[in-house]
Amino acid sequence: MAGGNVCGKATENNSRMKLYIGNLSYDLSEAELREALTEFEPIVDVFMPMDRETGKPRGFAFVTFADRATGEAAIEAMDGKELGGRNLRVNEAEDRRRAPSRPEPLEDPMELPVEKVDDRPTTSSGEKVRYKGI
Predict the structure, then answer these.
(1) CATH number of residue 28's parent domain
(2) Can you tell me the distance from the alpha carbon of 88 to that of 82, in angstroms, rounded to the nearest whole number?
(3) Is the pTM above the cut of 0.85?
(4) Per-residue pLDDT tens digits for 79-123
(5) Quick one: 18 exposed, middle or buried, by C-beta within 10 A (0-12, 13-18, 19+)?
(6) I want to staple 89 with a disulfide (CB 3.0 to 4.6 A). Which of 22, 40, 45, 71 is the partner?
(7) Tens-place pLDDT, residues 58-69
(8) Considering its fold, how many domains does the chain have in total?
(9) Which of 85, 70, 80, 86 is nearest to 37 (CA)?
């Protein structure tokens, strides 16, 4: 994927930088966050995840800056800075960690060939004993 943006990491033709901003106040709005970051314009995207069940903010955001230099300046200036009564935690966003996948089953046990074994007792003449149905 030449030139693509993989979760904030700069690639050949793309110098955007995605930051993780944590320890946000739950009352902070996207507009307030953008206002706090105005000196680091242009901002390409702001994503503030919401809790699925409550619909309330989860206390962190991902902010994408147009270039790496601006993103690094934002980290330097904003990490540890107080916003909404809380000290921010700001660093470059990391690639999403995925849970290890379950290993694929080797084969479906119902489709495996089964060797049939005739372990019925034999008579004195060597013939297999026939069982009668119940």
Answers:
(1) 3.30.70.330
(2) 6
(3) no
(4) 999 999 999 999 999 987 777 777 776 666 667 677 888 888 888
(5) buried
(6) 22
(7) 999 999 999 999
(8) 1
(9) 70
